[in-house]
Every structure is written in C-alpha cells, then in structure tokens.
C-alpha cells in the first residue's frame, strides 16, 4: 500500500491517510477482506506516530470502510455499494463546489460552466 504524506498539505496527516485508503478501496485496489498493514507498521513506514495511524483507522472503521479484528488486524470491510456511491457523490460535490466558486469569482457564467463540464465528461 503506497500512501504519500504531504507536509505542505493543509490537511492533517490522519485525514491524508483516510482519504488515500478510501480511494484505494473505492477504486478496487484494495478489495473486501484485504489486510491493511498494522498501525505500528504503517506508522513506521510513514515515519509518523502510532496515535496518528490509530486515529485514521478508527475513522475508517467508523465510516464502514474497514473492520478491525482484535489480535488479527484491520481488513477492508464488506463492500457496501451505497456507502461507496455516497462517498463518490460527496467527492464530486466537493470538487464541483470548488469549480463553481472559481467560475463565480472569474466571471464565468453558469451556462459556460455547464458547457465545460459537458465537454470534459464526454471526453473522459
């Protein structure tokens, strides 16, 4: 599992870990039942505190992305398609919100923004 921590990011380290693991799960790089590295191993690999990895794993577990089995470790949870879909909607809304903010401050009309989105969507 390749997680990259950016000190230049405005996000706390645990949030960076959570976001990247979610992305790995949502794109099927990590599949149901796959084991995650232990909190200690991940902390050592990333050169961060175990407390930080613990916080990330706890958040992932509370959101239903992973399951932790005492004495065995943490694993990718059974795929809840609605949970994954809802997370993707949230990500899209966040990105589109940023695009709307930029377009408003740049004087780009709503119709132009829709045209841009339509072109991008058709080319992807």
UniProtKB/TrEMBL annotation:
Q: Which Gene3D superfamilies match?
A: Winged helix-like DNA-binding domain superfamily/Winged helix DNA-binding domain
Q: Which UniProt keywords apply?
A: DNA-binding, Transcription, Transcription regulation
Molecular function GO labels: DNA binding; DNA-binding transcription factor activity
Query: Repeat: is it a keyword of this entry?
Result: no
Q: Which domain of life is it from?
A: Bacteria
Transcription regulation in keyword set: yes
HTH gntR-type domain mapped to chain residues: 11-79
InterPro entries according to UniProt: Tscrpt_reg_HTH_GntR, WH-like_DNA-bd_sf, WH_DNA-bd_sf
The record's listing under PANTHER family reads: GNTR-FAMILY TRANSCRIPTIONAL REGULATOR, HTH-TYPE TRANSCRIPTIONAL REPRESSOR YTRA
User: What protein am I looking at?
Assistant: GntR family transcriptional regulator
Report the source organism: [Eubacterium] hominis
